[in-house]
Amino acid sequence: MKNTRLSIALILLMSFLSIPLTYAQKGKTLKVMTYNIHHANPPSKERFIDLPAIAKVINESGADLVALQEVDVHTQRSGKEINQAAELGRLTGMNHFFVKGIDYEGGEYGIAVLSRFKILKTDSLRLPMKEGIGGEPRVLALITVKPAKGKKMVFGSTHLDLKPETRVLQAEAITAHLKDLKLPVILGGDFNAKPESDEIGIFDQHFKRSSIPNGFTIPVTKPNREIDFIMFKPEDRFEVVKHEVIDEQYASDHLPVYVELEY
Known about the structure:
Elements: H1 2-17, H2 21-25, E1 29-36, H3 51-61, E2 65-73, H4 84-92, E3 95-104, E4 107-115, E5 121-126, E6 139-148, E7 151-159, H5 164-178, E8 185-190, H6 198-204, E9 208-209, E10 228-233, E11 239-245, E12 257-262
Parallel strand pairs: 1-2, 7-8
Antiparallel strand pairs: 1-12, 2-4, 3-4, 5-6, 6-7, 8-10, 9-10, 11-12
Helix pairs in contact: 3-4, 5-6
C-alpha cells in the first residue's frame, strides 16, 4: 500500500513539474476595457448626457479595469456639478482617477481610469505636441493596483492626437516613460491610429497588443477601422483568453473594447 501511494505521489509531482513555469504562475483572469465615452453624449441625442448608459455598458461587461477617454469634469455642457469620472465610479462601484487634458467650458476635459481594486499609486504624463501644426494637449493616466496577492501591476489610459506627426512623438514619450517600470503594464486607449500605422508600430516594439480580425471600433454603425486598443507588457506575463468589441451603438461614438487576460 505504501509503495502504491508513493508511486501516485511521484506521478502527480512529475505531472506538475512538466507544466511550463509561465503557465503555472498564471490562473487568474483580469477583465479589462477601454472606452471612449464621448463625454457620455449619445450621438443620436445632441446635448444630452447619459452617464447611466455608459455605466450600464461597464457593469454588464464585469470589467475590473477600465480606461476612459473624453471625460468631462464640471463642464458647462455636461453639468457644472458633475464630475463624470467620480460619478461613473459611483455608478459602477469602482475607484477612479482622472487626469486633465485641457480646460473646457469652465471645467476640465481629459481621461480617466476605473478600478475594482484599491488604487495604490497614481501617475500622469503630459504628452508632447509637434510644433507648428496645432492640436489638442493630450495626457497619460496611470494607476498601480494589486489584483491578487503578490501581483502588483500598472494600468493606464491615454488618448492620442489626431495628427500622425504628433502621435509618433506621443507614442515615443509613452513607451519611454514606461520602459523602465519593474511592474507589468496594461495600457488602453483611443490611439486615433490604425494597426499598420507608424505610431502603433512603436507601441508594438514594447507591448503585446490584443487583437482579433476586423476588430473595428468606429463608427458604431458599420464600423470600418480599429483605433482603440488594449496592450500589455511583458508579453509572457499575460495571456489573452477573450477579445470582444462590444456592439453598443447608443451610448457613445466609439465601440468599447473588452479583453480578458489570464495572469
